[in-house]
Amino acid sequence: MMFNTKELRNLIATQASKSLSTKLMKGGIIAEREDQIYFVHRFLTDVALLELLYHCLSKKILIMALRACGLIIFRRVNQGHVSAITKDEIEFLLLQTSYGEHHWTPPKGHVDPGEEDLQTALRETEEEAGLEKSHFSMVAGYRKELNYVVRNKPKTVIYWLAEMKNDETEIKLSKEHQAFRWLKLEEACKLAGYPDMQEALKEAQLFVTASQ
Predict the structure, then answer these.
(1) pTM (two decimals)
(2) DSSP 25
(3) Measured between alpha carbons, how far is 95 from 124 in angstroms, rounded to an integer?
(4) What is the distance between the alpha carbons of residues 60 and 55, in angstroms, rounded to a whole number?
(5) Strand partners of residue 162
(6) Residue 89 has what DSSP assignment?
């Protein structure tokens, strides 16, 4: 037996606690795909919660949707000049999570059911940093795909590149993040920590400066 979305939500609401139900609803659910139930993980990080969800789904197959998209956003320190941009003028936006290891990344998030990858990147950027599409310009030709393993499951993260139109635009953090910083490449790489993210930032800066 497969559950449609309404039935699945009702099942969770009746078999899980109120706080857990709220978290599961926020995560987003899609059902009835190739005899499996997919739970789109956006907020849950506790293995125990996932095990409880599995129990609630009456032994149905649970699969984490480990695919995320975001934007590497940069600004030019000296706005208004007409000369070619140099590496010393580039600052990248990194956000610090308010959960887990409090790691630093560009705005990104998991793909919701029915979303295109770029649509996810734009939505997550607005949700996490308060930046709408009108606040920045997409840099054509740049697309970086990162592939790594999280808790023994493969994960893909895709980044596009965007330049702020005004370096004084306010950053408005969501509850998922507790701090943000604009950083030169070297500092950004130190905070980013992971080699694949560092490489993405380096490639982004090279792409911008080389295309001038």
Answers:
(1) 0.69
(2) H
(3) 12
(4) 8
(5) 73, 138
(6) G
